[in-house]
Amino acid sequence: MVDAAERIAGPSPRAVLDFGCGDGLLLDVAPEHWTIDAYDTDPAAREAAQDRFSRSSRRTTVYSDIVDIPENHYDVILAISVFQYLRSEFDLLQTLTRLKSWLAVGSDSFALITDLPLHRRPVRDAFDLARFVAAAGIPAGRGAARTGQVHRPYHASLDATEEVVARVASEAGFSARHVAGISPLTSRSHFLLR
Questions:
Q1: Staple partner for 23: which of 5, 44, 48, 160, CB 3.0–4.6 Å?
Q2: Contact 129/151 with Cβ under 8 angstroms?
Q3: Coil vs helix vs strand at 1
Q4: Which has the closest alpha carbon to 184: 131, 140, 139?
């Protein structure tokens, strides 16, 4: 995911928002020239991210309230495994509209979203999560416990098609493009929004 975002963004310094940051893992894998801000709805996840960010020499902010995220600011927004928690097309529209408001106007800014549940596969989620933990190099026992603290087992009922995502993204002011092969860790759908 980070590699794909960097290929799209290019080598210049970028203001990046990790929307749905979990425990802040992106900070450990993102290029040094990225300035990363983060937000998660889960207070435990935000606390874990704040702990990780506090040990970094980068300028970072973990927002505790979504209304504090600055508008017209970010070159890149990454929303990794966020959209699986949405319940309806209305929730998708509201979320994409917020993402659009945070992107810098007049630049080549973009949002990259992953794991949009185009098909319901609850059993698959456990396998995808296990593969992610293994790929991150987190020992199995510790990874399961650690991830369980910040990863809610609830996956919502949004079950959209690519056409629905494109239509809703358009309503939010985006042009959406389905992209394949971003992450070998999941079989779910990924979209580039500009």
A1: 48
A2: yes
A3: coil
A4: 131
